[in-house]
Design brief:
This protein has 339 residues and is of the alpha/beta class. The protein has 11 helices and 15 strands. The strands form 3 sheets. Strands 3, 4, 5, 6, 7, 14 and 15 form a 7-stranded mixed beta sheet that branches. A 6-stranded parallel beta sheet has the order 10-9-8-11-12-13. It has a two-stranded antiparallel sheet with strand order 1-2. Helix 11 links the parallel strand 14 and strand 15. The radius of gyration is 20 Å and the shape is globular.
Length: 339
């Protein structure tokens, strides 16, 4: 085994280096993972461009919070049987001791924000070290290329759990990006009476039909179905989609906001919210329970992220890869780095 490992560091916004250094060693309670694949999302592009809130990033940083790999070393106190296991791991470094963690809401940990790829070294590297308690081991034959998308799938699982869909309900998904299409797969598994996807990109909306949606609409056509849905899962994070999602829900319906909104987004009308008796939930990250949900669905074959992947690059081509993310090219889906 080589004693060296490469890592890609964003030193400061707009500047990155790819360097080779000593192989990282896991400490007590930790494992070292050989990275198989790491996804690039808009949050990573924000880190690179310097547009992420400084409360949620610590430069210099090795990005990479969406990843899969194989355990190749364990630290003191960790079961040696984990060596050789294919795995993913939670990103939030929840303390496990505060009231929210003890309640199972690890994504609401009150000890302060701390996440792999943002405040801790991430997976844009040959290897990374993570606490063994955060691992979610996969089946021996798991597709590690597809498994790199289990982090966004866990966020979607958090949204689905918050929305509590029931068989026979009318459900809409607003947005057909990575989160939206993963949501379609998980929601289709609960046998809704209707499952509608709304997105201005006809190509992406049409892809949702292959993922289990019953119909796809562009936003202009969505005006015809306002007030129809028992559950609306918003995944786009566009300026108007929070308000749009509430207009799609029936009176007494449920809305889950999953997209990451920026300042200036259109607010939800409080009069409509009150008179419509809507239940509105929001999601940021994923709890341990949501991770388990996503991994179970993946293992059972109910969730297959592989068709979302359109581009794969080596670490050396990071600049080219990150430029594709959020470029607006309708042919660009999920972009992976393959160390």
């Amino acid at each position: 085994m080589t004693s060296l490992s490469r890592s890609l560091t964003v030193e400061r916004p707009g500047s990155h280096t790819l360097a080779e250094g000593p192989l990282p060693e896991p400490g007590p309670g930790e494992v070292r993972v050989r990275v198989a694949a790491a996804g690039i999302c808009m949050s990573d592009r924000e880190v690179y461009n310097g547009h992420r809130d400084l409360a949620y990033v610590r430069y210099p940083v090795v990005p990479g919070h969406e990843w899969s790999g194989t355990v190749d070393a364990v630290g003191e106190g960790v079961d040696p049987a984990l060596t050789g296991r294919r795995t993913v791991a939670e990103g939030f470094r929840a303390c496990g001791r505060c009231e929210r963690c003890r309640h199972g809401e690890t994504s609401l940990c009150t000890a302060g924000y701390d996440e792999t790829g943002f405040t801790r070294p991430g997976a844009f590297a040959d290897h990374l070290v993570v606490p063994a308690r955060l691992l979610h081991p996969l089946a021996d034959d798991a597709d590690l290329r597809a498994a790199a998308l289990l982090e966004p799938a866990a966020v979607v699982a958090a949204a689905v759990r918050a929305g509590a869909p029931e068989p026979g309900e009318r459900i809409a998904v607003l947005g057909a990006g990575t989160l939206g299409l993963l949501a379609v797969q998980l929601l289709a598994a609960v046998s809704p009476a209707e499952l509608t996807v709304i997105d201005p990109r006809e190509q992406r909306a049409a892809q949702a039909l292959d993922f289990g949606a019953g119909e796809a609409r562009v936003p202009k056509e969505a005006e015809e179905v306002r007030g129809r849905y028992d559950l609306v899962v918003e995944t786009a994070g566009a300026p108007t989609t929070a308000a749009d999602a509430c207009l799609l829900a029936r009176r007494g319906g449920r809305v889950v906001l999953t997209g990451m909104f920026t300042p200036g987004a259109v607010g939800i009308d409080p009069v409509h919210l009150s008179l419509g008796q809507l239940t509105v939930r929001s999601v940021f990250g994923a709890s341990s329970a949501a991770w388990s949900y996503a991994v179970r669905a993946f293992t059972a074959g109910l969730l297959d992220p592989a068709p979302l992947i359109t581009h794969e690059f080596p670490l050396e081509r990071f600049a080219e890869a990150v430029a594709l993310v959020g470029s607006g090219d309708p042919g660009t889906g999920k972009v992976l780095l393959r160390p």
